[in-house]
Amino acid sequence: MNEFNLSEVAQWRERDLTSVRESDVVVMIYPEHEMLMTGACVEVGYAMALNKPIYALGRVPKSAMLSTVIRVSCLTELGRLLNILERKRVIEDE
Questions:
Q1: What confidence score (pLDDT) does residue 51 get?
Q2: What is the CATH number of the domain that holds 50?
């Protein structure tokens, strides 16, 4: 028997994928210790398929699959990059 309520899981999945679809960028925060990030990996893969910019903060493993991910060293750097993206978007919308 499945330990998860499949109806709830479907709702979570749809909510998360809708959030990725409606986002301008995706920010992935890796923990300091190693950990499987199965749900986050699905969301990042979906963002890649949609050609969304993906920023990663933390200990991002070296992987060909993550070669398009923009690694940032701290929240300050992430904020600076997101501000630049926002200004660019505003200019393009004018």
A1: 94
A2: 3.40.50.450
